[in-house]
Inverse folding.
C-alpha cells in the first residue's frame, strides 16, 4: 500500500496532481482511491487530497502517521501536515509562500523558520523552488507537475509510466508544457 497526500492552497493544481497519480497507479494494476479536494479550494484556503494505492483500498482517507509521501505545494501547508508522515516518510515541498488570511490581516506572522521546524520530524525532506522551475518550463501554473517530477525520481516507477499518466490526464494543449515541467522537476531532485 502507498499513501500520498497533496497539500497546498486552492488554485495550485491539487486535483490535476491527484489525477496524474491515480492514473499512474491504476495503469500499474493497483486499486486506487483518490479523495475529493478538502478545504476552501475556491477561496485560496488550505487544501488536502489523499491518494492511496494498493491491493484492496477500502477508504481514501490517510490517518496521521501513515503517509509515505507528502507533496507540499506551499511550505506552510507542508509544515501543517507533516505529522501525517510515517517515520522515514518523504516530504517534497515547494519553497513558495502564500500568505493565509490571518497573515494578510496582520493577526499573525508567516513563520520564517519552516525548514528548521521540519527538522523535528524523522522524515526525508526535499525543498524545491517549484515556482521558478515551472516558470522557466513555460508557466508558473505547472509547479504542481514540477513536484511530481521530483517525486518520480525515487518512486521506483519507470519514467515512461509517469509520462503515460501525464498524457492521459493533462489536456493536449498543455501537455508539452507539463512534460517539460515534469522533466525539470526530475532534474532538480536528481542533483
Amino acid at each position: 500500500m502507498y499513501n500520498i497526500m497533496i497539500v497546498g492552497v486552492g488554485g495550485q493544481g491539487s486535483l490535476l496532481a491527484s489525477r496524474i497519480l491515480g492514473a499512474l497507479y491504476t495503469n500499474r494494476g493497483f486499486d486506487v482511491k483518490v479523495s475529493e479536494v478538502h478545504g476552501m479550494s475556491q477561496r485560496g484556503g488550505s487544501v488536502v487530497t489523499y491518494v492511496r494505492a494498493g491491493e484492496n483500498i477500502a477508504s481514501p482517507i490517510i490517518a496521521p502517521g501513515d503517509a509515505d509521501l507528502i507533496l507540499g505545494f506551499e511550505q506552510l501547508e507542508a509544515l501543517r501536515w507533516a505529522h501525517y508522515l510515517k517515520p522515514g516518510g518523504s516530504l517534497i515541498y515547494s519553497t513558495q509562500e502564500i500568505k493565509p488570511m490571518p497573515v494578510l490581516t496582520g493577526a499573525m506572522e508567516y513563520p520564517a523558520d519552516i525548514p528548521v521546524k521540519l527538522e523535528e520530524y524523522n522524515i526525508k525532506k526535499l525543498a524545491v523552488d517549484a515556482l521558478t522551475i515551472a516558470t522557466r518550463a513555460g508557466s508558473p501554473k505547472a509547479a504542481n507537475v514540477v513536484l511530481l517530477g521530483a517525486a518520480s525520481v525515487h518512486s521506483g516507477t519507470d519514467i515512461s509510466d509517469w509520462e503515460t499518466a501525464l498524457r492521459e490526464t493533462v489536456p493536449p494543449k498543455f501537455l508539452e508544457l507539463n512534460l517539460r515541467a515534469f522533466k525539470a522537476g526530475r532534474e532538480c531532485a536528481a542533483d
